[in-house]
Amino acid sequence: SSIYADVQQGPAIEVFALTQAFRDDVSTPKVNLSVGAYRTNEGQPWVLPVVRKTEVSIATDETINHEYLPVTGLDTFTRAATELVLGADSIALKEKRAFGVQTISGTGALRVAAEFLLRQLKRNTVYYSNPTWENHHKIFADTGFTSLSSYRYWDQNKRQLDLEGMLADLDKAPAGAVIILHACAHNPTGMDPTQDQWKKIADLIERKKLFPLFDSAYQGFASGDPDLDAWAIRYFVDRGFELFVCQSFAKNFGLYCERVGNLTIVQRSGATRDQIHSQITLLIRGLYSNPPAYGARIVSKVLNTPALRQEWMDCIKAMSSRIREMRKLLRDKLVELGTPGNWDHIVNQIGMFSYTGLNEKQVAVLIKEYHIYLLKTGRINMCGLNTGNIEYVAKAIHAAVT
Ligand code: PLP
């Protein structure tokens, strides 16, 4: 018999399975609220005009070739990415105690971070929020972390952040534990701590000697302002924490499949830079040798050219405004219909996702009877909504709830 005969079928990945089910569904109307990507008001993917323009200029630039990049990536990109997240006037940058390495998007940044933390810093304990992006667990478990726990984050009854629960759970974490924090636009709840709450979280992390790892997948995409979206990270850096930031340029540049990411390492002193850099170089060498150049060249050129950077800022404003508009429209429609419950959380949340509070049974009704696809936790992608389908979706939610 085949040597593969004993390979077991693995479970499906929910988001991808839902998107497939949506494609296979021949009914009209149908709505996909499950994917994690931006859509225009016409329901289409959006290539940012500034990205398209930059692609064309790179494609016709005769000085560009396809030689390998360095193992840690394109220098002009990592410097711009690190500066974008820490801020041009960051004390850590001025003191030369922060640097970035290019990674295979946000997932790759998390994986390289996890590998480094396990192998070099001998960490094996990680905490992530309950709920969180489902890949956090997988990345750290696959890397070899042996203690994986969640901390309370979302209060389903009040549909808000459970700060007390979060602090109580983190208080029990052993010193040195890696704490994954969503920099902004928490996935899947869309609920971020306030500045005051971040201060309390930082106090506890400092007191318990925990290691903050920021996952920044939505900078600029959340509020429309990259500085505002990086507030929590910069606050921690200003307080003197050593930390990691895992950056993705999938959402804020619409470069999903091009896998553009950056891992920023903030140290107490620049004296450790070369050693860390050399070890991360060896890690990446063994994982995939070196990163792809295409997307990094685009981001680098846009961030390093003031006029293009301004165009990009206008694009992220356009995306975040459309999302906010959809939040308001959906909340208003549900109120107008008199749908039982309070729907203010939809407008109070930020970023691409909303944790609607719909339960599994209600979700099943939406999928089966209305062909509206969403995760069984009730998470919806606000970008799947548009002026053409919002009425239909609101009425369906109303029917599923009543
Ligand atoms: N982290 C969070 C919280 C995310 O939501 C995502 C994407 O959905 C990522 C990281 C990384 O995505 P990518 O690897 O496509 O950059």
TrEMBL record:
<keyword id="KW-0663">Pyridoxal phosphate</keyword>
<comment type="subunit">
    <text>Homodimer.</text>
</comment>
<dbReference type="InterPro" id="IPR015422">
    <property type="entry name" value="PyrdxlP-dep_Trfase_small"/>
</dbReference>
<comment type="similarity">
    <text>Belongs to the class-I pyridoxal-phosphate-dependent aminotransferase family.</text>
</comment>
<dbReference type="Pfam" id="PF00155">
    <property type="entry name" value="Aminotran_1_2"/>
</dbReference>
<dbReference type="InterPro" id="IPR015421">
    <property type="entry name" value="PyrdxlP-dep_Trfase_major"/>
</dbReference>
<dbReference type="InterPro" id="IPR000796">
    <property type="entry name" value="Asp_trans"/>
</dbReference>
<dbReference type="GO" id="GO:0008483">
    <property type="term" value="F:transaminase activity"/>
</dbReference>
<protein>
    <recommendedName>
        <fullName>aspartate transaminase</fullName>
        <ecNumber>2.6.1.1</ecNumber>
    </recommendedName>
</protein>
<dbReference type="InterPro" id="IPR004839">
    <property type="entry name" value="Aminotransferase_I/II_large"/>
</dbReference>
<keyword id="KW-0032">Aminotransferase</keyword>
<feature type="domain" description="Aminotransferase class I/classII large">
    <location>
        <begin position="29"/>
        <end position="397"/>
    </location>
</feature>
<keyword id="KW-0808">Transferase</keyword>
<dbReference type="InterPro" id="IPR015424">
    <property type="entry name" value="PyrdxlP-dep_Trfase"/>
</dbReference>
